[in-house]
Amino acid sequence: MYILTKTLTKTITAAVSKATTVKTNKNQNPFSLPPEIKTLIKSRNKLKRRAKQFADSELNKQANKISKQIKIQINSLKHEKWSEFLENIPTGLADAWKVSKALRGTTKTFFPPIHGERALVYTDEEKAEAFADSLERQFSPNMSQTDDLDFEEEVENILQEIRHRQTPPNSPAIPPVTLPELKAQITAPKTRKSPGPDQISNKTFKLLPENLLNQLLTLINASFTLRTFPTLWKTASIIPIPKPSKNKTFPQNWRPINL
């Protein structure tokens, strides 16, 4: 399962890279629009000029209506281009991560100096360590003399038993996920969301061809059957988000977001 997960991840990132590194004719503008869209743009601009000249609200409404048509056609064209390249899955491309970085954008959150164990820290490494220490304290169990140690031992024994048990007793079989169900779950999340450690964005998932969706479906159903998930799917990036109206120099005033 690990090999299949790695292969699927590499295939997706390679497809993204191919979709954004297309060679074009030097004599042709790679960003030129189709003639029908250019015609709509000219008509829209002409209507806007006339609407401004004669102060005609009806002409302005017509221009706005054409603007919506232009936007729809341009978005459709983008999806067609993505689908065209993703259908021809390439392998062995090394610049896929550059493409993923471009899709994520360049937004960067400013981190002020953070209170560490002894004093304010300024470097990224020291800040990361301060956040890690803070999260460890926040998510550690509260131990006191009044705790029921026998109960804690019982819970720990049950957890150990569950960890070493392949299949819980008398557990019903999990029905397999179907392709329509997978597609519905992929289309549900918002497109402009930050990716996790694999750097595969929601937009990429939404544009995957059916052959890759079937591979992903195989992984998901295998996970349900074996009752375990690939290690790569259990790894996440923790992004701290400042709590509103709180002192940002204290790590406990930042909320961890899991990607």
TrEMBL record:
Superkingdom, natural source: Eukaryota
The record, for PANTHER family, names: REVERSE TRANSCRIPTASES (PTHR19446)
Which named protein is this?
Reverse transcriptase domain-containing protein
Query: Where does this protein come from, organism-wise?
Result: Dendroctonus ponderosae
**What are the leading ranks of the lineage?**
Eukaryota, Metazoa, Ecdysozoa, Arthropoda, Hexapoda
